[in-house]
Amino acid sequence: MKDIVFCSNNCFVLYSAAVQAKSSENKESVPSLPQSPMKERPPKAFHQYSNNISTLDVHCLPQLQDKVSPSSSPPIIFPPAFEAAKVEAKPDELKVTVKLKPKLKAIHSSLDDCRPPSKKWKGMKWKKWSIQIVIPKGSFKPPCEEEIDEFLKKLGTTLKPDPVPKDYRKCCFCHEEGDGLTDGPARLLNLDLDLWVHLNCALWSTEVYETQAGALINVELALRRGLQMKCMFCHKMGATSGCHRLRCTNIYHFTCAIKAQCMFFKDKTMLCPMHKPKGTHEQELSYFAVFRRVYVQRDEVRQIASIVQRGERDHTFRVGSLIFHAVGQLLPQQMQAFHSSKALFPVGYEASRLYWSMRYANRRCRYLCSIEEKDGLPLFVIKVVEQGHEDLVLTDTTPK
C-alpha cells in the first residue's frame, strides 16, 4: 500500500493505510466534541496529527453555537426587500412594522465616487421664481432722443443716416404731398417731368383703363378733364372719379370718395352715397392695395426732348440717390470723340449722388459728377463735397 502525505499548519505527516486503521481502533479513547445541530452525516475518516493538536474532523468541523446576550426588547427581524415584516410580540409589548427598499451596490472606482449622494426632490418638476423690482424714489428723468443721439455720436459707432428730406411731390389729382397709404392713394407714379400722380387716383379715374402688362392708358386725358371738374366733397379742382349711376353728376377725388363713404365695386365702378345700395353688396371692394407692377404709359422720346429744350429750369429729376441737374450738349465736331458703343458723353452734363463717405464708415456725403472738354476729349470730374472737409476733386479720361 502506498504512503500518503498531508500538510496542515506547515507540518508534514506521513502515514500509511495501516496507521489509518490504528487510529480507527483508538477512536473510542478520543474525547468527543459537542455535537452540532446539523444532520448526521455518514462517518468519515479521522486523522491524528503529530503537532500536539487534538484530533479534529478535517472535512467537517463542528459548528459552535453563538452566545445570545439577553436583550431588554425583542430583536427586530428584517425581511427581504419590498416586504413588510411584522414582529410577533406579546400583547403587552409594542408592535413595530419596518419597510425596506433595495439599495443598488455601486463599485467605487475612485475617491470622488465615495461622496455622499445629493438630496433629490421628489414630486417637484418645476419651481416658481418671484422677481421683485425695486425702483428707488427720486426724480429720475429718462434721457430724450436728442441726448441719446449725442451720446451715440460721441461713441462714433452709429450708422444712422441723415434725416430724409420731406417729400414735396404733389399728386396732380388730389394735390396731396408724398406717397399715400397702401390701402389708400398708394404710391406716386411719374407722369411727366416733375408731374406725379397717385396710383389709385389715376386708376379710379373714369377714362383710365389698365392693360394686362400693367400700363395705365389715358391718364393725361383724365388729368386735362380734371382741371375743370370740382370735387363734391372738398370743392377743389382735379376730381376724376364720377358716380356710375346714369345722369348723376357727382364727382370726387379718390381720397374724398373714401371719406364720403362712396361704394366701390370690383368692376372698377363707383356709386355715390345717394345712389349706393343699403347694406353690404357681394361685389363691393373694401381693400385698395395694389402690389402688382403698374406704370403710366407715356412717350419717352417726347419726354426726353422736353428736358433738353427747357434748358435752365427749377425742376428736379431724381432716380433713387441720383439727382439729375443738366443734360449738356454735343456739337457736330464732337460726335466722334464723345461717345462709346454704349453711352454718350455730352459736355456740360451734371448730376449728383448721395453715397457713403471715403473718410468715415458711418457717414454719407455728396458726389457731384460732371463732364468737361479737354484737348478735344471728354474729361470726367467728380467733386466730393463733405461737411468739415475741403472739396476733393477727382478727374480721369474715362468714366470708370
From TrEMBL:
It is found in: Nucleus. It comes from the Eukaryota. Transmembrane segments: none annotated. The keyword Amino-acid biosynthesis does not apply. GO terms for biological process: methylation; positive regulation of transcription by RNA polymerase II. Keywords: Chromatin regulator, Metal-binding, Methyltransferase, Nucleus, Repeat, S-adenosyl-L-methionine, Transcription, Transcription regulation, Transferase, Zinc, Zinc-finger. Residues 168-276 form the PHD-type domain. PROSITE patterns: EPHD, FYRN. One of its GO terms (cellular component) is MLL3/4 complex. Its EC number is 2.1.1.364. One of its GO terms (molecular function) is transcription coactivator activity. PANTHER family: HISTONE-LYSINE N-METHYLTRANSFERASE 2C (PTHR45888:SF1), HL01030P-RELATED (PTHR45888). This is [histone H3]-lysine(4) N-methyltransferase. It comes from Odontophorus gujanensis (marbled wood quail). The gene is Kmt2c.
